[in-house]
Design brief:
Number of domains: 1
Order of helices and strands: EEEEHHHEHEHE
GO molecular function, one term: 2-C-methyl-D-erythritol 2,4-cyclodiphosphate synthase activity
Radius of gyration: 15 Å
Subunit structure: Homotrimer.
Keywords: Isoprene biosynthesis, Lyase, Metal-binding
Protein name: 2-C-methyl-D-erythritol 2,4-cyclodiphosphate synthase
Shape: globular
Number of strands: 7
CATH class: Alpha Beta
Cofactor: a divalent metal cation
């Protein structure tokens, strides 16, 4: 059995916060605003995994109205989501992810992001692809108001 899910997330920049993307603390003058650590990439991956299983989204599982998730480590949230997939007998076929940001530059951090996501999903780094793009200075990402991320995952399960 093969199940495919897609995820999308966006967070605005904010002063006084860390810029954590793909589990990597990226040196930058601003961080991302959110109830948790606002890791836009890990949120998109978690949503893609949940979507592939038909289990809603991260807002359903980790609501921003719950103080338990205030400043939560998104890597732990993704690991919890992956636990749900493992309980149901799924393994990762592959994950393909895109970070959309004018700044900061993602290229120096992509290898670490891939390693972090692969580790969280119990997979080999060759099963995870992370790429980055700008929006050619168009829209909120182009105006450097925030960052967006998309992810698609393929889950496999033996019958």
């Amino acid at each position: 059995m093969i199940r495919v899910g897609q995820g999308f997330d966006v967070h605005a920049f904010a002063e006084g916060r860390k810029c954590i993307i793909g589990g990597v603390d990226i040196p930058f003058e601003k961080g991302l605003l959110g109830h948790s650590d606002a890791d836009v990439l890990l949120h998109a991956v978690a949503d893609a995994v949940l979507g592939a299983m038909g289990l809603g989204d991260i807002g359903k599982h980790f609501p921003d109205t719950d103080p338990a998730f205030k400043d939560a480590d998104s890597m732990k949230l993704l690991e919890h989501v992956w636990g749900l997939a493992r309980e149901r007998g799924y393994s990762l076929g592959n994950a393909d992810c895109t970070v959309i940001a004018q700044r900061p530059k993602m290229a120096p951090h992509i290898e670490s992001m891939v390693a972090n996501i692969a580790r969280a999903l119990g997979a080999e780094p060759s099963q995870v692809n992370v790429k980055a793009t700008t929006s050619e200075k168009l829209g909120f990402t182009g105006r450097e108001e925030g960052i967006a991320a998309m992810a698609t995952v393929c889950l496999t399960k033996l019958p």
